[in-house]
Amino acid sequence: MFMNCRTLSLSDLSSSLSDDASVRVAYKGAPGSFSEAAALKAYPLCEAVPCDEFEAAFRAVELWLVNKAVLPIESSVGGSVHRNYDLLLRHRLHIVGEVQMAVHHCLLGLPGVQIEEIKRVLSHPQAITQCEIELNKLSVVKESVEDTAAAAQFVASNDLRDTGAIASARAATLYGLNILAENIEDESDNITRFLILAREPVIPGTDRPFKTSIVFTLEEGPGVLFKALAVFALRDISLTKIESRPQRKRPLRVVGNSGNGSAKYFDYLFYIDFEASMAEQRAQNALGHLQEFAPFLRVLGCYPMDTYL
Ligand SMILES: O=C(O)C(=O)C[C@]1(C(=O)O)C=C[C@@H](O)C=C1
């Protein structure tokens, strides 16, 4: 009678949880945005929940309105999304995964409009940066809006014949626009990396490649950043990202008080991603070592690396 019953393993349970259609995932933007696509890449059956701001997505997770948030953190062309670095520190969520996604932009216009009629182009600032060469060839006025899908929605709902939107092919379908040009990104490898945030951390493993993200401060002194980076180099741990942000609460550091007065330096927070799991002794040792001279250190998350594109 029980011949066909298969014993459940832990991996069955974890995959059924992550693919569960009841998972609600917040993203910033309108339906058809690249962030929505990233949320669906991470959780194909999820209910993707649009938010008007990054902070709203953080709050939605904190208030249990959604299970996760998927937010952009860096673009291979446009660089870091600084706002999300600052919000990671201000909020207490954990990074539980990452999604790397190839971003292909289209120029969209109203049905019947020819590309020569387009005098103005709307899009997200990162998308405008990623398509700069093509846009300069068209010699159009560029205008920033909240996200790529919002640009498409605006052109469609206001019936703007002289205005185009840089957005996804899916946004064209959703808002009834035509694709006037495809793959208009300057670099064929146009990748955006998104972070997956949750209330609870994932348990670090060693069964597949893991990455750890941390933030720390340093005291004044010669070579302190060099020493901080050496704790990883000494243990053969590769760094994949380093970012510095101003310390808003303590923006200036006063150094020395000689006859010439005291110097005031900007004070920074350092964000580092490194390729090791917190389940590994070498990662624990590296952070123990860093703690010896970092007055503040927080692990933002230890999560499986996205090795697919
Ligand atoms: O505007 C969108 O569609 C977004 O999802 C935002 C965003 C970004 O913030 O970088 C995401 C991916 C692309 O790099 C362009 C824009």
Automatic annotation (TrEMBL):
Residues 24-199 form the Prephenate dehydratase domain. InterPro entries: ACT-like_dom_sf, ACT_dom, Chor_mutase/pphenate_deHydtase, Preph_deHydtase, Preph_deHydtase_CS. Keywords: Amino-acid biosynthesis, Aromatic amino acid biosynthesis, Chloroplast, Lyase, Phenylalanine biosynthesis, Plastid, Transit peptide. CDD domains: ACT_CM-PDT, PBP2_Ct-PDT_like. Pathway: Amino-acid biosynthesis; L-phenylalanine biosynthesis; L-phenylalanine from L-arogenate: step 1/1; Amino-acid biosynthesis; L-phenylalanine biosynthesis; phenylpyruvate from prephenate: step 1/1. Transmembrane segments: none annotated. This is Arogenate dehydratase. It comes from Stephania yunnanensis.
